[in-house]
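[09:14] KT: can someone run the structure on this one? pasting the chain below
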Amino acid sequence: MDRIKIDSEYIKLQDLMKFCGLVGTGGEAKIVIQNGEVKVNGEVCTMRGKKLRAGDKVEFDGTEIIVE
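[09:31] RB: done, structure tokens below
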């Protein structure tokens, strides 16, 4: 499980996925999110602009990331 510290109030889901290297491009993030392959706090999330804040957990392709 990885931890990512953000300096702002939130980070959008697609931006977090790109930043962490889970996907190579925003287009790839859009596809995997809309296909229901990403979970936020244990639930499938299909909103690529979902605002993630400290304490949120993202799961994709066997990787878990906690936002701090």
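[09:33] KT: thanks! The mean pLDDT is 96.
[09:34] RB: yep, looked fine to me
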